[in-house]
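Help: read this over?
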Amino acid sequence: MGDTGPTGPVMDRDEVDRALARLGAEHEAIETSLLALQDHAGRRLLEGAELTGVTAERWSAAEASITLLWAYFDAYTGALRTAREIRSRRRWSSREDLVELTELLRGEAVTVAGSAAATAPAPDGRPGRLSERYTLASLVERMNQLYATSLDMVVAADAVWSALPARIDLLAAELRRTRELAHSVGVRPGEHPAGDDLERITRTLTRLREQVVSDPLAFWTPAQGSSAPGGGRPDTTVYDREARALEEVRREIEAVLAVRQDAEQRIVRLRDVLSRADRTLAEARTARGEVLAKIAATEVPVVGGPPIVLQEQLAAAAEYRRHAQWHRLSPLLESLEEKAEDELLRARESLTAVTAPLAVRAELRGRLDAYKAKMARLGHAEDPELAEKYEKARRMLWSAPCDLRVAEQAVLRYQRAAAELLATAPRVPGQAGPVDRTGPGA
């Protein structure tokens, strides 16, 4: 290749075609990543939350980076479209075309103009300029940098929100039960140290939850030496400390209960466990009838009845306590507590086993609708063969009784048809798929 231009040797037709193919693949991968970031649950939560502290600062920068990412992507798309148009002018490109293509594909031919280029710092840390010029390769590298930092922030915030608030709520529920138990035995703030500890834990958990919701990144510990987006874990130091404190208080209250009314409370707990087991079994029997009516061609296990022997032993324990027969009551209570927990576990397992077909049907329905929404977004909602397979699967899943095996095969056929349609659908050069830039509220 003897000819040269401002950007070096002029590319030949084969080099141009290979470069365009590579750039097209990069364009598709970048678009997929940007759409995934746009639809990320963490980004939607950040967009609608009232943020404070480090999260507010980083989200402001991340929003600017995401806006800039789309501006860069638009510029990249435009440059790729222009290059394809030049290449499509003639089957055998002229030297002028090749010079122009070489400049576009290798030179700093992409300009990001306007205020968008000033919304994020440049790679060297300097403030962004009102317009910047890039080669296509450097523009891809810049987009990768912005995407990685934005995704890292979104994933970290989402991980904290997914982990800590739910755990705090569970601990708060346990705290409420412990406070009620404490009050029942006279353990109150100002009268007993355990009561003061319960008040302090309550205040700490309330404040912790507010801070986690408004500033999740303050509770994020990045992984050392990890460059992957979202590498790290939620910082549960405060939560763990309060959980340990609550456990200590609970043990102290249980010691008070053991002194005052150990036997009575243990019998009450046993009655509660067996009652929950009975209610769970009743719910399982009701659910079994519903499953048999709605689901066909599936094995639904039979739900057993409540164990009469445990109720008889519980009545015997109450008699032992009433007559102060502690030497008989103690081993009976120990045996009953273990059997009652086993019975509750068996009841829960029965309920889970009985309702499993309904859960499978719900999963198949969700999967079918998700694929339909995806195909509609990609412009294939009106495909007759795809629509026919969807309707068949839908009728099977929304009819009663539903044959899960047949319905699952119908959903799989719809998925395979969707995948084949996407694989064989013609792609117009320079025309990208639909891009959702309107935010989660659209």
Observations:
- Residues 237-294 form the longest helix (58 residues).
